[in-house]
Amino acid sequence: MKKTEAKFGIHRPVTVALAGNPNSGKTTIFNALTGSRQHVGNYPGVTVEKKEGRRLHKGLDITFVDLPGTYSLTAYSVEEIVARNFLLQQQPDLVVHVIDASNLERNLYLSVQLMEIGAPLLLVFNMSDVARQRGLTFDVPLLSQLLGPPIVQTVGSKSQGIDRLLDKVAEIVQIRAMPVYRYHYGADVEQQIERLVQQINTHPQLSQRYRPRWLAIKLLENDQEVCKEVQDESILELAGECAGHLETIFGDDPAIVLADQRYGFISGACQEAVKSTVESRHDVSDKIDAIMTHRVLGLPIFLGLMYTVFQLVFNVGEYPMIWLETGFHWLGGLVASAWPQGSDSILKSLLVDGVIGGVGGVMVFLPNIFLLFLAIAVLEDSGYMARAAFIMDRVMHKMGLHGKSFIPMLIGFGCSVPAIMATRILENRRSRLTTIMIIPLMSCGARFPIYALIIPAFFPEHIRGMILWVVYLIGIVLAVICARLLRKTLLKGQTIPFVMELPPYRMPTAKGLWLHTWMRSWHYVKKAGTIILGISIVLWGLTSFPRPSAGQLEGLSSGQAQSAVLQHSIAGRVGRTMEPVIKPLGFDWKIGTALIGAMAAKEVFVSQLGIVYSLGEVDEGSAVLREKLRADYTPLQGFCIMLFCLISAPCMATVAITRREAGTWKWAIFQWIALTILAYGITLIVYQIGSAAGNL
Hints:
- By secondary structure, the protein is of the alpha/beta class.
- It folds into four domains: 2-183, Rossmann fold; 184-250, no CATH class; 298-522, no CATH class; 524-695, no CATH class.
- The strands form three sheets. A seven-stranded mixed sheet has the order 3-4-5-2-6-7-9, sandwiched between helices.
- Helix 7 (187-200) packs antiparallel against helix 11 (233-250), helix 16 (346-363) runs antiparallel to helix 24 and helix 27 (570-577) packs across helix 29 (589-597).
- The model is unreliable at 1-10 and 278-282 (pLDDT under 50).
């Protein structure tokens, strides 16, 4: 390892980037460094989270940036691109590489790539206690000498070594000339690197923007993102020639040759400075995994844990949900009482039905969201979530997805909104988008009131369970088909192999669980809530205007007046206009109007039908509404209603979250249109075939 000097000016405040592999404890270190002084957003143009936090230490105002977890800086995933671009473009004052000390050689691969970028570097050997338990000892001074950058040992889960880390950060950033570490790849490779460096230096727009040596290495590796940035034929042609020369010499792809060289350097350093006190050891994690990831027992255990999570989320969360519903109902009544009894004020309706109703519709899910994210945080921080993805990978791979896609899909049976947010655990953007697109086909809890109304109205008791099972099964089968179709068409591309280290089991810390849960829950309230509120007000307007005259409502009961207002509104008129379009599905204007209302939330379908039938406020247990439906429709039509509501465009909350997580309205609109067309086509086929069979 050679050292060269690079000028490094100190500016206050300073920026320190935290890099590291997934499951290295990087976020735990970040939380220990910054506490609650964090800001969470997204990197521009992508849905990858951007976490920043501040810490004052020894006269320095330090901004810590938690980069996305990544195994390397080769641009295979959006996380790798984001991390690499930040380091290259923002040029932080220091990069702190958090390393899982119990799996040193794998983690140090990223260290070598950080050296190649030329970033001022500090290595943090985290989880040192786990390394000691596995019988590993480190000669830290020797290892630092061999690798180059200074090393600090920590145990992030216990906040051990954090003060030493802060002191070292302060010491390094105040040095005016930081050493830049350079790894020597051997004479043959270095010769080709030098040829490319000389050519790159003749193009100031490239040599000033990137470190020429790093750019040359990436070109030899045929890094597609870098090749797109270069866009100079002379450089690209020379890179191809140099790569071909190396392939001739080594008989292998240059990217593999360079990787082998890096691992060789790492292995040599570790053999010198890392010792194992035992030759072989089966630690506690190995013993637990013998059961938890067992080929036969693994899946039932996982399903049992997921069942427990849902029991927690939807049973324990039921009580605070009732409290919130009661609170918003009381608030609505309090606001309504400000107007004279019986008055029909537009402002009153806007505040009570639009604003309070809209906010309440979002906030009522907060207990479920909080408990769900708490459960996910426990599974992640304990190390089990990686096992769950590993267990499900074989099943999900047949759909063109990774094992981790199963987690948000399972959450989708509760609610699509947190399910789509949970797709952030997926590293690959194509897999993430595919999962987001199919999550609405998982029959969420909001659809259950529709099933609970329709099934008892049309089907005898002994087959009701089977009908409900069929409806859920249809959604699952369609999700599998659509996922395979998307991966072969719109989201076609190279699937990154499913590689996930199984981190050692750890006891989650209360601070870590709180920060993970609170940050995600607050993100939901702050971002999704405002969007959903706006959409709710728009839908309130569509079902409230234009209003009939007072004379038209005179003499009508409350329920009849509600129905008259709805028929006269834009939504009601659209319902009648769309009747010829939906008639081939077995639907009439009443069903059409209810479907428009259900755009806000699927369960609104039930209350909208109650208004159409002049029954006032009803729920899925309304016997009178069931009788009226039974009188107007057939069991086939009832089944088609459920089928259409299962497949069709998701609620506005889901649309809003899809737009946010996908990063563009394009995918949200595509999802809305595609699912509506799919619902129309399948319902049309079922109704027409069913009608023809019934007429035989």
